[in-house]
Amino acid sequence: MDPLLLARLQFATTTSIHFLFVLVTLGLVTLLVYLQTARFVTKKPVYERLTRFWGTLYLINYALGIVTGIVMEFQFGLNWSGLSRYVGNVFGAPLATETLVAFFLESTFLGMWIFGWHRLRRGIHLALLYGVAITAYTSAFWVMVANSWLQHPVGYEEKDGVAHLTDFGALLSNQSFPIALLHVIFAAITTGGFLMAGISAWQLIRRNPDYEVFRKSLRIGVVTAAIGTTMVTGFGYAQFGYLSEIQPTKLGAEADKLAAAADFAARFGGSPGDYLPPEWVGAPLGFMILIANTLALVIFLLPLLWRDWIIRLKFPLYLLLFAVPLPFLAALFGWFFRELGRQPWVAYGLLKTGDAVTPASGGVLLTSFLGFSVLLIALAVADWLLLARFASRGSADPALGRRPDEPVLPIDGRPEPALA
Prior knowledge:
Elements: H1 3-42, H2 45-78, H3 81-115, H4 122-151, E1 156-159, E2 162-165, H5 168-172, H6 178-205, H7 211-238, H8 240-246, H9 248-251, H10 254-268, H11 282-295, H12 309-312, H13 315-323, H14 325-340, E3 345-347, E4 351-352, H15 353-356, H16 362-392
Antiparallel strand pairs: 1-2, 3-4
């Protein structure tokens, strides 16, 4: 089999699955900050129960998501040694910063937050959660800096066949960066909102006795989803304004596409057709827009929050439940368009994908592809099974934040002893 195709399939699979974890992590940590802040300000116990419940789901996703991130990082050295060699001096700087932030600062803050319940003052404990959220967003910031450079290389010069960073500020002012970052952030917030609204709707459909708890989280989730879809759609359309300029073969006018392809052929050899992305690359974009426009209808559910008509009618609860997968699909389609649309370049106009892949046999890469795919799929399935299992228990007795003297409520009918 074609080694290049296998390497691309492996990276697409692992990156896409990891991205699903990232969406939940960023979305839920944003909502957790709101919930615990509300608890700190209002002193209402309902917000503490919500923080403990959604915090448990967040921790499950975070723990398994970290593993998928480590798996993804390995591929830069294993399958894409040409990329690492040629652009490592530029591309490696933001990725190294992201690794330090995600694996050290964020994990440290999160660990202290987990074990700081009832041991730290409420203000300090809340500050730790803010630290988790800030470092999570900082991690996303540096990943998008690195990816935006591949989309539109700036601030570098080539010496001895290797790209060297000459202007760090150019990475941050890259035309491909700020709007794309905001688009990803609000995609995650939208995902978190729909996940919270969908799980809350499920609990209300099941007539969970924690009515007030999930009534509150349903309202928060619907409002968050409405804000998120509005912002993510706006920042999505805003990218069309510059994509035709920096990546004419992806989204330019037909004449501009052919002119850019002819220029690449003159510089790098081959025919102009070799430098055009697949003809079907617009399909993921179309699906993303269709799903985004569908999700935007959540705005019409906002008036139903008045006097709990959204719960009384019941039908909107089913709509929210079935809508949970849609933000994930929209994000994946958008990511496919962003990445596939710049083919055949791994660094647009600078390094072709075929020159970036590790020169390995098809058998080796097939084994690698199958092994990594099985691992990542297993982690994704385990994540959703655990989320469903702990979500089904409700908010009556989440282990996170339980006081040492708090009795453990029975889950399956069997009494359990309190923690010593």
